[in-house]
Every structure is written in structure tokens, then in C-alpha cells.
Design brief:
Distance between the termini: 10 Å
Number of helices: 0
Helix content: under 10%
Strand content: over 45%
Strand order of the largest sheet: 1-8-3-6
Structural class: mainly beta
Largest sheet: 4 strands, antiparallel
Order of helices and strands: EEEEEEEE
Shape: globular
Number of strands: 8
Length: 101
């Protein structure tokens, strides 16, 4: 199975990537590892959100990004993930974000 990814350019509050289905850890695919990449020139907070009910509701994971960085994460169970800026967040500038597994 190839790499799946979602990308977005964030320019204002309320914008998120499309949901990325992330496989959990399994004997076939190994650990449920995913990559996060945040770049650009922006002022504000980008949050990683998770859905365990197929995108009906979203919760913040506690992972936030206020400057460009690359990070890896891991999940034990299959989930949907997305990156973005909350609807009422203070935001300026442009950020490019990418989630991949």
C-alpha cells in the first residue's frame, strides 16, 4: 500500500486539511506512524485533530504548531486526522501543511 497524504494552504481561521485515514498498528502494516509537516510564514496556532467516529465529530489531540516543523506521530487504532486552524483562532500569514502515512 502506497503513501496516502493530504495537504492544504492555510490563510485564515477555520481552514483544515481534508481528513486523512490513518491505519492503526497492525501485523501487516507495522506501527500506525504518520508524518506532519508545517511550513510557511504565519502567526497563529495550527492544531492536529482526531476523529474516531468517521468524521462526525473532531477533538484536538493536544498537538499544536506555532512555527514551521516536521514531526512524526503514532496511533494504535485506525482514526481520521486533520490539521488546521480553529474557527475563532487569531491568525495571519500563510502556512502549508501536510499529513501523510
Amino acid at each position: 500500500m502506497g503513501t496516502m497524504e493530504v495537504q492544504a494552504t492555510l490563510t485564515e481561521a477555520g481552514q483544515f486539511t481534508e481528513p486523512l485515514p490513518v491505519r492503526g498498528a497492525s501485523l501487516i502494516y507495522g506501527p500506525g506512524v504518520f508524518d506532519i509537516l508545517v511550513s510557511g510564514d504565519f502567526s497563529g496556532t495550527i492544531t492536529l485533530q482526531i476523529s474516531i467516529d468517521d468524521g462526525v465529530s473532531w477533538s484536538e489531540t493536544g498537538d499544536t504548531f506555532t512555527s514551521p516543523e516536521a514531526q512524526m506521530g503514532e496511533t494504535a487504532t485506525p482514526v481520521l486526522l486533520r490539521l488546521g486552524v480553529g474557527k475563532n483562532a487569531d491568525w495571519s500569514g500563510t502556512a502549508q501543511v501536510r499529513l501523510a502515512q
